[in-house]
Design brief:
Layout: H1 2-19, H2 22-43, H3 52-68, H4 71-83, H5 116-126, H6 134-145, H7 156-172, H8 176-192, H9 222-238, H10 246-261, H11 286-300, H12 307-324, H13 354-372, H14 377-397, H15 402-405, H16 421-438, H17 446-466, H18 482-495, H19 497-501, H20 506-518, H21 529-542, H22 549-562, E1 563-565, E2 568-569, H23 580-599, H24 607-628, H25 650-658, H26 667-682, H27 732-735, H28 742-747
Antiparallel strand pairs: 1-2
Helix pairs in contact: 1-12, 2-13, 3-4, 3-5, 3-13, 4-5, 5-7, 7-8, 7-9, 9-10, 9-11, 11-12, 11-13, 14-16, 14-17, 16-17, 16-18, 18-21, 21-22, 21-23, 23-24, 24-25
Length: 768
């Protein structure tokens, strides 16, 4: 009867959830997070062991910190890490290190002592200090140097250590972490993976038919498979988009999710022995919480789109919030430490544990992201501003009326060139900035409707741009300036290849190939212009059209010669103190290299290695840019082309969109900084003329700061700072709490990362 009542209660709650404003529930869940976490921290000293059960709690605590910004949570994990000297098992004698089960300081290579490195890496990313990850690197890099590949011989280990590998890869750039990640999990699969269901047995002792439940069934332990699903979610969050084995992990995640939801109990929980609930009947929280977290993460990040996953996740949350959560903020029905379902074991509302609380926090935080996606005030502000910029340009051009209706402004010292260059500059630069945003899938939200509208207008505009019969055929021929803005159009295709290039009809595509190709007539000056040529040619290579490898490779060699160090490029043979490292060098150099990687071309240049090095430089430059943002949300105004406004921040925005922010720059920190700058630049200023087009100026109408080549089409380069809109609304960039940026921390006497010189560590030679 109790179960029937819970089913009815869950169904009623689900209907109420659909009817109630999601914002109200999100507030309630945030209150639950605070109640649960404060209750735990009040009653447990941070000076605990770094062993798996305590460390698993800290993975949830750090997620709660990123979501809420509660400094107490951060301080708690930091005190724990400092108490443990940033170590797991303490032995320093490598000759005695072991990786079988063990709770001694000699078991340094046993994954239950390595999960603490996840939190140490998170703390390092907030405040970089090599001492925070020195032990993690020493241990993991020693382990990877050994011939053994069977380190993860039990399911729990996949949660304990897989995310350590991806986190340390992102910090160090050491490919060995990704190589061993794949090697280790394939051995794990050979030990305990069940091909029939996609689930994992806890370890080799429990593989069917050697081992069976008391009722002769396969024995899948809920917490064991919960560890794996949650671990895969964390891994996918951190894996590079172009990782060669990414499909393997994505497919495994989806298959495991299918196996999991097939065994959910009607009340929303998963029993301890998932396929044989009668063996150890009753509620269980830890496995349920990890499953709920994994499912919600997959939903929020576009991996699990079917309604069946949402139904399972919501039922899981209903169990967690209505049954597992107790009035005092404790989390009940957590199966004690063990490795299997035990018939007759008592698991009741007083059964709690640190790892169960951590799992609950993970699920609750991801549920808030689910509820709040699309409600971020910062994202709404960015999206409104991007739409305000884009709509006048695209709505006119989609009808072939941009050149008829655009209210053009030019510099007071205009050099006399044909003002028709304005339209190509406006269209190309705008599209390079908003391509990631309008490439997001439709989602039924008001913002999604705007994206879909702009995407449709953009596709029509792309056709007009190359149709000689259209009034909005752009000025591709007869002058050299076309090379510049053709490059931004090519860049927009690189940034939105599947959604903006692929849907174009064959005639339009061929016209673009012809227009891009005829621009080889332009001999670029000995400056950043060489990258305009290489960007166009690399796009042609990616699209499968003939490309000029010499233009690409010679540009790459010149850019390498012009690198001055510590993230800065000279604009040609002599250095100029301006923002052209932002406007052109970092983004177009990276995209040239990525386009050539995608094309699969084999030339003298190792595009992959060059790209790795260029990415590190861009990360350093993003640190420079973030530090230039004052506590008030301003940045220094120097150099030519300053009316490009927010384009100054393009590399910082690019690293956020790429999900490659370096240590010391968190999502909430960068979003807060960029949003503050946008407000200072655009609010209450005359940035748009009476026709709805941008005015010439830096913060408003300031025509005197224009250069001789500046028109108000040029200024749509400001859209290049809006690249993070290409991250989904549920991404931590939008859902994490705002954090103080570096100059705010510094001027408020708070700890902030010290700066240092970055040297090139990746060396390249011609391949032949």
């Amino acid at each position: 009867m109790k179960k029937v009542m819970l089913v009815l209660a869950s169904a009623t709650a689900a209907l109420a959830l659909q009817a109630a404003p999601k914002g109200n529930e999100a507030t309630q869940v945030r209150e639950i997070i605070h109640k649960v976490n404060s209750n735990w921290q009040k009653n447990h000293s941070p000076e605990g062991t770094p062993f798996w059960h305590n460390a698993a709690y800290h993975t949830g605590n750090m997620e709660a910190y990123f979501l809420t910004g509660n400094q107490d949570y951060l301080d708690y994990s930091q005190a724990w890490a400092e108490h443990n000297q940033w170590k797991g098992a303490k032995s320093d004698d490598r000759r005695e290190w072991k990786y079988d089960y063990g709770e001694t300081d000699r078991h340094v290579l046993f994954g239950d002592w390595q999960i603490c490195f996840q939190t140490y890496a998170d703390l390092y990313n907030i405040l970089p200090d090599d001492s925070r990850i020195k032990r993690a690197r020493d241990v993991m890099e020693y382990q990877m140097s050994t011939p053994q590949n069977d380190y993860w011989w039990w399911a729990d280990g996949l949660y304990m250590v897989m995310p350590v590998m991806t986190k340390l890869y992102n910090i160090t750039g050491n490919d060995k972490y990704l190589e061993k990640l794949y090697s280790y999990i394939t051995v794990s699969d050979s030990i305990m993976y069940d091909n029939e269901t996609g689930l994992y047995f806890r370890d080799g002792k429990y593989v069917y038919p050697k081992h069976k439940t008391v009722n002769g069934k396969k024995d899948f332990w809920a917490r064991g498979d919960g560890w794996v699903l949650a671990g895969l979610a964390k891994v996918l969050k951190d894996l590079p988009a172009d990782y060669k084995h990414r499909d393997f992990f994505e497919n495994k995640f989806r298959r495991l999710a299918d196996g999991v939801i097939a065994l959910q109990q009607p009340e929303g929980y998963w029993s301890r022995s998932m396929a044989d609930p009668e063996m150890a009947p009753g509620y269980e929280t830890s496995g349920t919480a990890f499953f709920t977290y994994g499912l919600l993460w997959g939903i929020n990040n576009g991996y699990l789109n079917d309604a069946k996953y949402t139904d399972a996740a919501l039922k899981g949350w209903q169990y967690l919030s209505k049954v597992a959560l107790q009035k005092d903020g404790s989390i009940g029905y957590v199966q004690p430490i063990g490795e299997k379902a035990i018939p007759g074991q008592v698991v009741d509302k007083t059964s709690t544990a640190d790892f169960g609380v951590g799992a609950f926090l993970l699920a609750a935080c991801e549920y808030v992201r689910y509820l709040e996606k699309g409600t971020s005030a910062d994202r709404a502000y960015w999206a409104d501003l991007a739409y305000k910029m884009a709509h006048p340009v695209l709505s006119n051009m989609a009808e072939g009326k941009l050149q008829q209706n655009m209210l053009v402004e030019v510099s007071p010292n205009w050099d006399g060139r044909d003002k028709k260059v304005t339209y190509m500059e406006a269209f190309g630069r705008l599209m390079a900035g908003i391509a990631p945003w309008i490439s997001l899938p439709d989602d039924g939200t008001p913002e999604g409707a705007r994206r879909a509208e702009l995407r449709e207008l953009a596709l029509k505009s792309y056709k007009h741009a190359v149709d000689p019969e259209s009034p909005d055929y752009l000025g591709w021929r007869g002058h050299g300036q076309a090379l510049v803005d053709a490059a931004y159009i090519a860049e927009s295709f690189l940034r939105g290849y599947d959604s903006l290039w692929m849907p174009l009809d064959d005639t339009t595509k061929q016209r673009y190939v012809e227009e891009f190709t005829q621009l080889r007539r332009v001999d670029p000056p000995y400056t950043n212009w060489v990258l305009f040529s290489s960007t166009i040619e690399s796009f042609l290579a990616k699209a499968g059209a003939p490309c000029d490898e010499y233009r690409i490779n010679s540009a790459i060699r010149k850019v390498e010669e012009w690198y001055t160090g510590d993230g800065w490029y000279a604009d040609g043979p002599s250095f100029a103190f301006d923002y052209y490292s932002s406007y052109v060098f970092h983004p177009m150099y990276l995209e040239t290299l990525q386009g050539m990687k995608d094309s699969g071309r084999y030339t003298r240049i190792h595009y992959g290695k060059y790209h790795q090095r260029a990415l590190k430089r861009a990360q350093k430059f993003s640190i420079v840019l973030e530090r230039l943002i004052s506590p008030e949300g301003t940045f220094p105004v120097f150099g030519r082309s300053i009316p490009y406004r927010m384009a100054t921040m393009q590399p910082l925005a690019l690293m956020a969109w790429y999900e490659k922010l370096p240590a010391g720059l968190t999502n909430g920190q960068v979003r807060g900084a960029l949003t503050a700058v946008m407000h200072r630049m655009f609010d209450g200023k005359e940035n748009f003329n009476e026709g709805g087009f941008l005015t010439i100026g830096f913060t408003g109408r300031q025509p005197n700061v224009a250069d001789w080549y500046t028109n108000n089409g040029s200024l749509y380069m400001t859209s290049l700072a809006f690249l993070p809109l290409g991250l989904p609304a549920s991404h931590p960039f939008w859902t994490d709490a705002e954090q103080d940026w570096t100059s705010r921390k510094a001027w408020d006497s708070k700890p902030f990362p010290k700066d240092h010189h970055w040297r090139d560590e990746i060396q390249t030679w011609d391949l032949f």
